[in-house]
Amino acid sequence: MEQQWIDEQVARRIVHPRAKDTYKGSFGHVLVIGGNAQYGGAGIMSAGAAVHAGAGLVTLATRPVNNTALHTRYPEVMATDFTELDTLAPLIQSATVIVIGPGLGVDEQAATTLSFTLQRVTDEQTLIIDGSALTLLAGQEKIHWPKGHLILTPHVVEFARLSHLAVTAQTPSQIQAFADTLPKSAVLVHKSARTQLYVPHQQTYWQNTSGNPGMATGGTGDTLTGVIAAFVAQFGFSEETVAAAVFTHSAVADQLAQYQYVVLPTMVIDHLSEYMHQLSEPK
Ligand SMILES: NC(=O)C1=CN([C@@H]2O[C@H](COP(=O)(O)OP(=O)(O)OC[C@H]3O[C@@H](n4cnc5c(N)ncnc54)[C@H](OP(=O)(O)O)[C@@H]3O)[C@@H](O)[C@H]2O)[C@@H](O)CC1
Ligand SMILES: Nc1ncnc2c1ncn2[C@@H]1O[C@H](COP(=O)(O)OP(=O)(O)O)[C@@H](O)[C@H]1O
Ligand SMILES: [Mg+2]
């Protein structure tokens, strides 16, 4: 297989200055579905990252126990209960991009919300499937992928559950073979210390060039989902948009790692907008 690099040039092609005559509706509505009682922070970090990476509107469908924490940290985010399906349905319908899975859990309520959401996604929407939602799908006998543009963001163990490939067997050609089983409009983000991006039926995969071990804290992947969601919501779905989001998330962490030993997900969130400004300006 051939390899191409995800570097700053890719991110610069996507992140551009905002047009003057715009409003919040110009930059998309991101709906994040995640955060149960145990993993509330995952939903909060995904939604917070989406706000800081520039989504026009962000709603978090979470468990109500997380609402005070959410609004203390990110009052820009609207909130609803992911088990209240009548309220969730119109939010799914009006979203530009939906993220499902960060901290969702794998219990019956999570499974019900997942299948409810998958049935309602339309061809025009983008669905990012991460964390618990990937684990739930992997447990199904046969996965029925939903409509829409699909972005899967498994870490190596989530990918092992989905593909039945042991971590040591996850070579580019084996990962590509799994990607070839996905719907045509899908992007697979295979996360690790060397994150790669695969598209069905391509001979070339993308290798990210940013990232560092300071990022190895729970919540870094949850944060990535919010960055990808905001990029797709603003700049449109394409594999290059996803690549730009993957690069930006880790490039912010690289800047922070110049003077910090660990780079917490919330620190990355706090510096996203500053870095995107740098990307949008001529060098
Ligand atoms: N603050 C919050 O609310 C947080 C909430 N979170 C939410 O929790 C949910 C469960 O997600 P999860 O990833 O923690 O658990 P799961 O899918 O069982 O995987 C764990 C297994 O995978 C392994 N493993 C992982 N990466 C690996 C690698 N690169 N290379 C090798 N091994 C690797 C790991 O190995 P071990 O460390 O045990 O050796 C273990 O066996 C999910 O919804 C998520 O969003 C978290 O994001 C944390 C912060
Ligand atoms: N050593 C490392 N070098 C580069 N990136 C890393 C490293 N460790 C973790 N990451 C990044 O952190 C994220 C971890 O995602 P994930 O395991 O889903 O975390 P969580 O579910 O806890 O949020 C991925 O984007 C991965 O690329
Ligand atoms: Mg994760």
Q: Which short descriptors sum up this protein?
A:
283 residues, alpha/beta, UDP-N-acetylmuramoyl-L-alanine:D-glutamate ligase, 10-stranded mixed beta sheet, 11 helices, globular, binds ligand NPW, binds adenosine-5'-diphosphate, binds magnesium ion
Describe this structure in words.
There is one protein chain. 51% of the residues are buried. The protein starts with a strand and ends with a helix. It is 44% helix and 16% strand. The chain has a single domain, classed as UDP-N-acetylmuramoyl-L-alanine:D-glutamate ligase (3-Layer(aba) Sandwich), CATH 3.40.1190.20. Strands 1-10-9-8-7-6-5-2-3-4 form a ten-stranded mixed beta sheet, sandwiched between helices. Helix 4 (85-94) packs parallel to helix 5, helix 9 (220-235) packs across helix 10 and helix 10 crosses helix 11. It contains eleven helices and ten strands. It is of the alpha/beta class and 283 residues long. The chain has helices at 8-14, 40-52, 67-73, 85-94, 108-120, 131-138, 156-163, 172-179, 220-235, 239-257, 265-280; strands spanning 2-6, 29-33, 57-62, 78-81, 97-100, 126-129, 149-152, 186-190, 196-198, 204-208. Strand 5, helix 5 and strand 6 (126-129) form a beta-alpha-beta unit. The structure holds ligand NPW, adenosine-5'-diphosphate and magnesium ion. Ligand NPW binds at residues 39, 41-42, 101-104, 131-132, 135, 155-158, 192, 218-219, 221-222.
